[in-house]
Design brief:
heterodimer; A: alpha/beta; Rossmann fold; 2 domains; seven-stranded parallel sheet; 18 strands; B: alpha/beta; nine-stranded mixed sheet; binds flavin-adenine dinucleotide; ETF_a/FixB (chain A)
Chain lengths: 343, 259
């Protein structure tokens, strides 16, 4: 099954920037549009086309939206075998497309689905795959420079893929701006090409028995975030109320998510979201490197912690030693009060 | 498959993440000579492998790719209850990115006639999470990444996994052989039993395989790794005020300035 290492490929045969448009139930994951906007920049720089790859069942509207959002073309693989997402049919379809069309760069969202897909499809292509990038650029030779935070965000490793194609990268959600689709995209349908579906249901290796998914919140655009950690001790009401008073969103550490106090889509950090709000309030959060990585880009950081030696204080602009169950409600009351006075 | 499943668990040796902190002044890493340990998420993988063996019978074999001292993580897995361990060690493996790393593990799993391969979610040192789907892809096997729990159906030759997906979860039935990556923290790893521990430390010897044993000597290492680390920059440390306030009023005043 696995691809041989040789023979050497001619990298000059590979062209264009592809973006995998992750979708679930016909709705695009926000990161897909972020990557399309970034992919547009890269394609303009290399003088190549930007191609959206849309896979699913009844998802032609997403292919058209991709064109409205700047893709030169969209490849559409539309078939019931692709809904819901499964690694092996998606992977086989992707392998066939790469073999036939030879993209130079492929960008994929760093979500669970995106990473499941990317890890699978990079192997048969013998592609280089850089994980969890937060910066993308191309050098003079048109080579992708994919940078990712390493060692807990203290260093950036820039990874290149000189002799293999495609050059693939998964990219963290929330890092790039999505932009808006163009109003008039009347000719969008013409830029959509339906491709041959190369997988059949009887060849698949897995069956999705049940899917239980609700609406997914997106905290990455919030201006104000009130985040809680293990120090919440099961009660996140103080976070919710302060976030409400400040017009922001609630977020959490992985510890608080694992406890089930806060939904996974609100996790900030290395295995969660990257956020850059104007104000980030970290309450009952110790400041582990995996958490800091996701919020270090915030403009102003406030820490509330009972432990005066908690590392989070070193990474905060304003720190207060105290119980979050007292500090946050008091702060909420003050915010509400001043607002009423102002009104 | 009445005699149970061949369960293979992949364990990686990494610098101890708990000893690694960021110096807020320089933005550099304090590793304080971090000792090498078993990758934290792999404790969950080992526990899942043992629980699966409890449920369906069979054997658990731990495998690791790394230099000879990495056999310490095999020892840890055996102490926890694994039946045996295989060390994939060879100079030829040096500099491997996730493509050859997953190839070596995939070939070893094939040699061991694995029904189920269980990995951790990601490593704490380079954290790509690409190795588990890579193993599955090399062998053309099913994959279950981001798995919270496992429900084996030996009569059907199927492993059902509950996967964490955006906004919820899904239950997926995968045909054997299958590669699983367990969510970090998905279970409570059992403590090592005293007898097992003594056995692991005194009697256990890992089987050792080279790249040639796996017939992949021309397909691993730096030369066969598509990705090259082109450069490392220290991220510029984020400047923070680090002002301590002693009252909520004072905190509010600072916030009023920024909001
Ligand atoms: C592979 C991997 C990936 C990871 N990814 C992430 C990630 O994406 N995001 C993430 O956040 N973590 C992640 N982690 C986990 C990370 O290492 C830490 O374990 C986690 O961030 C700790 O969460 P915490 O700060 O809520 O809990 P703790 O470290 O337990 O800290 C709780 C803090 O609350 C304080 N406290 C207690 N009671 C109160 C109170 N009443 N009022 C105020 N303060 C109080 C305590 O003093 C303490 O500082 C990952 C770990 C691994 C191994
Ligand atoms: C700074 C830096 C950045 C890097 N970035 C990339 C990159 O973007 N892309 C890339 O392809 N390579 C990259 N590498 C190389 C990569 O770290 C190695 O290939 C590594 O050995 C495997 O990747 P991982 O630790 O990320 O595994 P992950 O995929 O995160 O590990 C998941 C699970 O797979 C199993 N596993 C992984 N490695 C082993 C092993 N050696 N033995 C047994 N089980 C194992 C464990 O169960 C583990 O929990 C990077 C290396 C460095 C130093």
């Amino acid at each position: 099954m696995s691809a041989a290492s040789g023979p050497e490929i001619d990298v000059a045969d590979y062209r264009d920037v592809w973006v995998f448009v992750e979708q679930h139930d016909g709705e695009a994951a926000p990161v897909s549009w972020e990557l399309l906007a970034k992919g547009r920049e890269l394609a303009d720089e290399t003088g190549e086309s930007l191609v959206a790859l849309v896979v699913g069942d009844g998802v032609a509207h997403l292919a058209e939206e991709a064109v409205a959002r700047g893709a030169d073309r969209a490849l559409l693989a539309d078939d019931p075998v692709f809904e819901p997402y499964r690694a092996d049919p998606y992977g086989e379809q992707f392998r066939a497309l790469v073999e036939a069309r030879k993209p130079s760069i492929v960008l994929i969202g760093g979500t669970h689905t995106g990473r499941d897909f990317a890890g699978r499809v990079a192997v048969p292509a013998h592609a280089g795959l850089t994980a969890d990038c937060t910066e993308l650029a191309v050098d003079e030779a048109g080579l992708l420079l994919a940078s990712r935070p390493t060692f807990g965000g203290s260093a950036m490793a820039t990874i290149k893929c000189p002799a293999h194609r495609p050059q693939m990268a998964t990219v963290r959600a929330g890092v790039f701006d999505a932009g808006e689709p163009a109003e008039a995209a009347e000719n969008a349908a013409e830029a959509v090409e339906s491709v041959d579906v190369v997988v059949a249901e009887e060849d698949t290796l897995s069956t999705v028995l049940e899917r239980v998914v609700g609406g997914v919140v997106d905290i990455t655009d919030a201006d104000v975030i009130v985040a809680g950690g293990a120090g919440c001790e099961g009660d996140v009401t103080p976070l919710v109320e302060l976030a409400e008073a400040l017009g922001g969103e609630v977020a959490a550490t992985r510890a608080a998510v694992e406890e089930g106090w806060v939904e996974p889509a609100r996790q900030v950090g290395q295995t969660g979201k990257t956020v850059r709000p104007h104000l980030y309030i970290a309450a009952g959060i110790s400041g582990a490197v995996q958490h800091l990585e996701g919020m270090n880009g915030s403009d102003v950081v406030v820490a509330v912690n009972t432990d005066p030696n908690a590392p989070i204080f070193e990474h905060a602009d304003y720190g207060i030693v105290g119980d979050l169950h007292e500090v946050l409600p008091a702060l909420t009351a003050m915010v509400r009060e001043k607002r009423e006075v102002a009104a | 498959m009445n005699d149970g499943w061949n369960i293979v668990v992949c364990v990686k040796q990494v610098p101890d993440a708990d000893d690694v902190t960021i110096d807020p002044d320089t933005g550099t890493l304090n590793r304080s000579d971090a000792p090498a340990v078993l990758n934290k998420p792999d404790h969950n993988a080992v526990e899942s492998a043992l629980a699966l063996r409890d449920a369906v019978g069979g054997t658990v074999t731990a495998i690791t790719m790394g230099p000879p001292p990495a056999s310490a993580v095999l020892q840890a897995a055996v102490a926890a209850g694994a039946d045996g361990g295989v060390l994939l060690t060879d100079r030829a493996f040096g500099g491997s990115d996730t493509w050859p790393t997953s190839l070596a593990l995939a070939r070893a799993a094939e040699e061991l006639d694995a029904d189920v391969v269980i990995c951790g979610e990601e490593s704490t040192d380079s954290s790509t999470g690409q190795v588990p789907p890579g193993i599955a892809a090399h062998n053309g096997w099913a994959q279950l990444t981001y798995t919270e729990s496992l429900d084996p159906r030996p009569d059907e030759g199927v492993l059902v996994g509950t996967r964490d997906v955006e906004g919820g979860y899904e239950r997926v039935a995968a045909a054997l052989p299958v590669v699983v990556a367990m969510v970090f923290g998905a279970n409570d790893p059992r403590p090592a039993g005293l007898h097992r521990k003594i056995f692991a430390e005194t009697e256990f010897e890992p089987v050792q395989w080279t790249a040639a044993d796996l017939d992949i000597e021309d397909r691993v290492g730096l030369a066969n790794s598509p990705t090259k680390v082109g450069g490392m920059d220290t991220a510029s440390p984020v400047e923070r005020e680090r002002t301590r306030v002693d009252s909520v009023e004072a905190l509010y005043d600072h916030l009023a300035e920024v909001l």
